[in-house]
Specification:
2 helices
Length: 81
């Protein structure tokens, strides 16, 4: 089966998928911490749990931005080289 996608376009799609997955995991863990705070009256997030935000949201956002940069070169139609 022939495909007209180039290697860097596949890489861009992989970056976007991985970045969205990381953002989803960050959102899940944030809501899990909020539930623990509201229901069980645990103290606020502190210590090593604060690393969750730059790890999940930062890496996810950066991967999505890199994927968009890779896909920016994908021009539709006959003008592709």
């Amino acid at each position: 089966m022939a495909s007209n996608l180039k290697k860097h376009e596949y890489l861009g799609l992989l970056f976007i998928f991985t970045g969205a997955t990381w953002l989803g995991l960050g959102l899940y863990f944030t809501l899990l911490a909020a539930e623990r705070l509201l229901i069980a009256n645990y103290p606020l997030i502190s210590g090593s749990e604060l690393l969750m935000f730059p790890i999940f949201y930062g890496v996810g956002g950066m991967l999505m931005a890199l994927g968009n940069i890779e896909l920016k070169e994908a021009l539709p139609g006959k003008g592709r080289k």
